[in-house]
Every structure is written in C-alpha cells, then in structure tokens.
Amino acid sequence: MPEFDDLPPPLRQAMLTLPAHACGEPAWAGRLEALPSHVPGPPRPLLLFLHGSSGLNEQTQAYQRWLADTLGLASLAPDSFARPNRPRYQSPAPVAEYEAVHALRLAEIQMALAALPLMPWVDARQLLLAGSSEGGVAVARWRGREFAGRLVYGWSCEDNYFVEQADNGFDPDCALLNVLSDADPFFGRDSEYNRSLDVDGDSRRALAGMPRAKLVLLPQAPHTLYNLPEARALTADFLSSLLA
User: What keywords are annotated for this sequence in UniProt (predicted)?
Assistant: First the structure.
C-alpha cells in the first residue's frame, strides 16, 4: 500500500496475519507492505510480536497463524533483520553488543505504535505486546502503558549475562505472562553463560508484588517454546481474559 512506503524497513516488511473473519476465508498473511488496500470490518485487537535472534521464521509464522485461527486475533511481527546493517552477535559476546541490539528492538515497538494511524482496522485500545528471547527483553523493558497485556517467552526478566541490568519497564499493575523453560540453555540458572553470576533463572523476583503477573516454568522445555501445547494453552487463557 502506498501509505506504507515511508515506514522503516522492519515495519514495512513486518509479517501481518489477519483472522478469517476480517478478510474472509482463509486468514490473510503476508508482509505489511502487501496488505490489500481495504480491510473490511470494525477496528480489532492486535498483538505486536517481537521475534527472537533467529528472526522471522516458521516458528513465528506458526504462532501468528495459531493466533488468527484459534483466537481470531490479528498480529504484526516486525522484521528486525530488514534494518540495514543490523548488528548481530554470537554468544558469549560483550554485553555492549547485546545492549546495542536491545536498543533497536525497543525502537521497533515505537515504530509500530507510530504507524497505527495508518491502520484504521486496529483498535488502539486493545493492543497486546509479546516477544520471545531477544524480543522478550524489549517487551519487558517497554515503559509505555499502551498495551493491555504482555507475554514474555524465553526471557527471565532478571540481571544476567545478556544485559547490563534487567531494567524492566512494566508497572506493578501490568498484566503479564512469563513462560520459561525450567532448564533454559541461555537464561536458566545452570546455563553455561550464567555460571559466574547470581541468577534465579526465572522472573520470580522481578514479578514479586504484581498481582496480575504470572510466571510458568515448563519442565525440560526448549528455549523457543511459544508453540508448545502447554504454552499455547497458557497464552489462550491469558489473552481470553484480557479481551473478554
């Protein structure tokens, strides 16, 4: 669409999925820049998803399809690697390299919010924010109150090797679901990267005193876990409670 031409590449090339009731059968999926000129129906809720360090991939697309097909929820996933000269890292790396990327991921949230006036089919009162691993850091750090709830997958929301400090931005009344593996190879207590650090390997201290926040540790789950049946069930319950 012409109105998207001036958007930054991560957003212009974001993966958008709309549920079937929005565009007819089947659900529509594609890059934001390829969205049809007219999206029928009233404004609807939108989940903004920040992918992990592996970028937009089949895991991300499967998650977005599931949101559309099962929950009837539209979702938008910016493509962080569409940014020219986007920095990369190989763990273990100096923390400054990680933090440079974390700053870019936070900027992607701001990009998406700034573009909402171009998307009249989005209900800005029912926005949700989710992210996995690297993307989860930005979700946890975001300091705005634009989102009705947040989902953090595969990130422990605590000081560890991946950050200078956790620097969480959520308020005590934030509705937040944090789903982690109890044996996460990167952020778990026994991770090789955390062996010299005093970490819990989870968000128990970060979420203390937050009545609307929930931490769930999935036994022996992989690092990328948001498509596991247990994670999907938790996600469905959380989102349904917010959008009821």
Answer: Hydrolase
Q: Which residues contact 93 (CB under 8 A, 6 or more apart)?
A: none
Nearest to 208 by CA among 148, 157, 137, 165: 157
Sequence-distant (≥ 6) Cβ neighbours of residue 1 within 8 angstroms: 33, 35, 36, 37
Q: What is the pLDDT of residues 168-184, one digit of tens each?
A: 999 999 999 999 999 99
First to last CA, the chain: 32
Residue in the structure block whose two tokens are 């549920």: 19
Write the pLDDT tens digit of every residue in 108-155.
999 999 999 889 999 999 999 999 999 999 999 999 999 999 999 999
Q: Which residues make Cβ contacts (< 8 Å) with residue 125, sequence separation at least 6?
A: 148
User: What topology does CATH give the domain 2-243?
Assistant: Rossmann fold (3.40.50)
Conformational region of residue 55, where left means phi above 0, alpha means psi within -120 to 50, and beta covers everything else: left
The residues, ordered by sequence, that sit 6+ positions from 88 with a Cβ below 8 Å of its Cβ are 101
Query: Residue 4: what pLDDT?
Result: 83
| Token pair listed for 24 | 């007819």
pLDDT of residue 23: 59
